[in-house]
Amino acid sequence: MAQWSTAVLRLIQKLNNFLRPGSSKLSCQPFLVDGVQVGYISPQISSYLSSYSDVFCMVKSNDGEIVQMTLNPKIKTFLERTEKVAEVMMELRQKDAFSTLRGWRDEMYPVMASFDSKPCFMVERSAACECNSLLGVLQYGVHVNGYFTDQSGKVFMWLARRSPSKQTWPSKLDQLVAGGIVCGEQIQEALIRECAEEASISEELAKTACPAGSVRCSNKD
């Protein structure tokens, strides 16, 4: 295997480390809403959330071990769940309980079992994203690669460099455009918005982007 390919494989394995043998997945508790699993919660985080029993409920085995966490079944609607979870996250932010909440952006991301399923509730981006998702939920984004061909026929790929002032991974290399899909947003809507925000790409040009598939990874930092 070529040196470059080996390096890329190591990177992919690192990015997908939560699903690999020996990961912290075994120590995490499944997080369920209405009997459907939507995430994983680490013991450290569940110990904090257990004090908010009006919102988060612990399910224990006969020997008292916590086997899963659920959203309180008394909180039934999408709006109620969103509001109650937001109250908890806001309080944890004020206490500076988790560093990931320092990146609070007032962007709401959907919490759902799969991309095509109905969202159970919304949660602040900083609680849902990056490598330190508090609720271990799936999140989705658009990633755009840009190519051009020179006069000799060689194909080149555009790479971006993140701003040194970014909250996450400052000054690192990045794709031409990438960003999360917020609650209620369609894929193309997210693509057009991110293209404008990150690369000043017009809507007309953004609409010419061709879908090439999807990639899923589960990472725990």
TrEMBL record:
It comes from the Eukaryota. Keywords: Hydrolase. GO terms for molecular function: 8-oxo-dGDP phosphatase activity. Residues 141-203 form the Nudix hydrolase domain. It holds the Pfam family DUF4743. InterPro entries: DUF4743, NUDIX_hydrolase-like_dom_sf, NUDIX_hydrolase_dom. Residues 10-129 form the DUF4743 domain. The keyword Hydrolase applies. This is Nudix hydrolase 24. It comes from Acropora cervicornis (Staghorn coral).
